[in-house]
Amino acid sequence: MEKVIHPANSRGTANYGWLNANYSFSFANFFNPDKVQFGLLRVLNDDYVKAGMGFGTHPHENMEIISIPLKGEIKHKDSMDHTAIIEAGEVQVMSAGTGVEHSEFNSSKEELNMLQIWILPEKNGLEPRYDQKDFSALMQSNELINVVAPKADQSENSLYINQQAYLYLGDFQAGKKIDHTLKSENNGVYVFLIEGNADVEGTTLKKRDAAGIWNTSKISLEFKIPSKVLLIEVPMN
After folding, report:
1. Where is the Quercetin 2,3-dioxygenase C-terminal cupin domain positioned along the sequence (predicted)?
2. How many CB atoms lie within 10 A of CB 127?
């Protein structure tokens, strides 16, 4: 087993007035040669967006993009003629493929906190696509919920992306212990603690800390206090 720890305070930060951003990996003006990506996970941004503000229309291509609002809501509009509101409890996926333009705004009266994740696709030049789903009814305490998976290995409820990657969300009570078995020996898992305090393979993670783990078939987590966690399982090459 190999492991890298990314404390919350080691992330890149940027305050644009309307946006307070936290970058787990090199992004925008933040560059750290040791934090370019984890396997095929390229971006994990933890953004706080003021009411009525947001990202104007901008392009993407050849990237699998997952957005998870933790508080507030996102108003999305794209060049595929999708206009949607994504609220906390929902997950949005967008395969940029050959190219897509979109905008994202905080359409509520409160601050928006969202996670945006970019994963490199299996193939370039794929047809762009969009989807979203409300997982709030499935988020039962003490269970990992598979919210994103490859198309060929979707659960009954998960969204899909064009990569052999899996995203899980979980809300756990104090004292709960879980094991997570990886889907492939080529995969690693990036554990991002949204809230709480957890022991992950001998390392204590607190709010917004992360651990990347690979060269293992299974990881164990123990939650010391009520906690929320995001697991991102991705190919390492």
Report:
1. 153-234
2. 10
